[in-house]
């Protein structure tokens, strides 16, 4: 039994004490509660402004009678669907509670306190957290033009490097690396160093990169057994609330990840939704068209105000507001618009804005006119 003098901090694992927790976008209800605003546009978490496919809603409704059953922990039906969709073997795929779960699991499977885990400056916040959780040394390689400097990452590999996270495109900067640079990189990474290629925004990037130079990770998993590719249904498929993503790699590495995965980490609704979403490519096409229009609308409007943006290949855009960025963020909240401050990435002068639907984009631009 503990008494009131117990200092629980002393009981916490040293690696956990070092973890900087993930900072999520402000939830809509929180803003309504705190700021008493009734109408909110959330443009802070790169969600799909069209919602999700109507076919998914119908499938979930029909599935409700099965709520009392545990899900299939192996996600057999979804993996079968994905295997056919991607032309890979089922045993090259595992599913996770969002790709986030898998990104973190990889670190727990492959890295420990004596290892180095590498990622780029401005790389997605989950990478350093995953390194910290396992007590590994997090190695941040300076970015180049806000994107990954792949040659510098290669040069930073040491005998202790176990895992390298790269995101294509990257969040929060929206930057992309092309096929030539990727191939030069992956072909030179030693085979005993794992590379995790995070393709959360793959659909947007493949579409935006219309000269075909986007390197699709699936094309490389057979040639490079040390490569793992993560993807999500949270973005282009609009299923963020259900928490479902997947990882691709060589069957052996995937089997080790499955050892650590909790038996039922992906619920049955999420699996049914993902299977159905894959059968509605028209929804993704509409999503990409909406994003194209919104990206142009927002980018043109902010550039017309003389603001600089980081050109983005995803469904968000990062804008330089200067030293008043946080103040502008606060003022936008009062106008009912939630965007994302980037101070936790060391980008204190920037705000990241998720591209919304026409209505949300207009709300943001109207609010910005007022605030500036
Ligand atoms: C680059 C990147 N990777 C992974 C994720 C995690 O997505 P999820 O856990 O919803 O699949 C995100 C979410 O914003 C992201 O931006």
UniProtKB/TrEMBL annotation:
Pathway where it operates: Amino-acid biosynthesis; L-histidine biosynthesis; L-histidine from 5-phospho-alpha-D-ribose 1-diphosphate: step 7/9
Cofactor(s) listed in the protein's UniProt record: pyridoxal 5'-phosphate
Reaction it catalyzes: L-histidinol phosphate + 2-oxoglutarate = 3-(imidazol-4-yl)-2-oxopropyl phosphate + L-glutamate
Enzyme class: transferase
GO MF annotation: an example: histidinol-phosphate transaminase activity
EC number, as in UniProt: 2.6.1.9
Name of a matching Pfam family: Aminotran_1_2
Aminotransferase class I/classII large domain segment(s): 42-367
Keywords for this protein: Amino-acid biosynthesis, Aminotransferase, Histidine biosynthesis, Pyridoxal phosphate, Transferase
Residues bearing the modification N6-(pyridoxal phosphate)lysine: 235
UniProt record, GO biological process: L-histidine biosynthetic process
Amino-acid biosynthesis recorded as keyword: yes
Quaternary structure and interacting proteins, as annotated: Homodimer.
HAMAP family: HisC_aminotrans_2
Protein family membership: Belongs to the class-II pyridoxal-phosphate-dependent aminotransferase family. Histidinol-phosphate aminotransferase subfamily.
Listed name of the protein: Histidinol-phosphate aminotransferase
Provenance organism: Thiosulfatimonas sediminis
Gene behind the chain: hisC2
């Amino acid at each position: 039994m503990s008494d009131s003098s117990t200092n629980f901090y002393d009981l916490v694992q040293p690696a956990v004490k070092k973890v900087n927790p993930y900072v999520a976008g402000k939830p809509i209800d929180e803003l309504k509660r705190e700021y008493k605003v009734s109408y909110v546009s959330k443009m802070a978490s790169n969600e799909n402004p069209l919602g999700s496919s109507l076919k998914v809603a119908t499938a979930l409704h029909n599935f409700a009678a099965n709520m009392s059953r545990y899900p299939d922990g192996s996600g057999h039906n979804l993996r079968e669907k994905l295997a056919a969709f991607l032309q890979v073997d089922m045993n090259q795929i595992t599913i996770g509670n969002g790709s986030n779960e898998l990104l973190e699991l990889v670190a727990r499977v492959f890295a420990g306190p004596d290892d180095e885990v590498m990622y780029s400056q401005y790389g997605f916040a989950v990478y350093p957290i995953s390194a910290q959780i396992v007590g590994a040394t997090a190695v941040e390689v300076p970015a180049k033009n806000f994107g990954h400097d792949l040659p510098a990452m290669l040069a930073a590999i040491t005998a202790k490097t176990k895992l390298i996270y790269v995101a294509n495109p990257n969040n929060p900067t929206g930057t992309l690396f092309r096929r030539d640079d990727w191939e030069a990189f992956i072909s030179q990474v030693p085979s005993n160093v794992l590379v995790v290629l995070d393709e959360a925004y793959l659909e947007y990037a493949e579409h935006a990169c219309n000269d075909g130079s986007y390197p699709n990770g699936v094309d490389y998993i057979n040639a490079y057994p040390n490569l793992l590719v993560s993807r999500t249904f949270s973005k282009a498929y609009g299923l963020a609330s259900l928490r479902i993503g997947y990882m691709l790699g060589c069957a052996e590495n995937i089997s080790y990840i499955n050892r650590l995965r909790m038996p039922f980490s992906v619920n049955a609704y999420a699996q049914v939704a993902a299977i159905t979403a894959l059968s509605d490519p028209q929804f993704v096409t509409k999503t990409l068209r909406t994003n194209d229009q919104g990206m142009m609308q927002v980018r043109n409007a902010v550039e017309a105000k003389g603001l600089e943006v980081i050109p983005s290949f995803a469904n968000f855009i990062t804008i330089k507001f200067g030293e008043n960025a946080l103040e502008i963020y606060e003022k936008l909240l009062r106008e009912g618009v939630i965007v994302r401050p980037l101070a936790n990435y060391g980008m204190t002068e920037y705000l990241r804005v998720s591209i919304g639907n026409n209505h949300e984009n207009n709300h943001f631009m109207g609010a910005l006119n007022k605030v500036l």
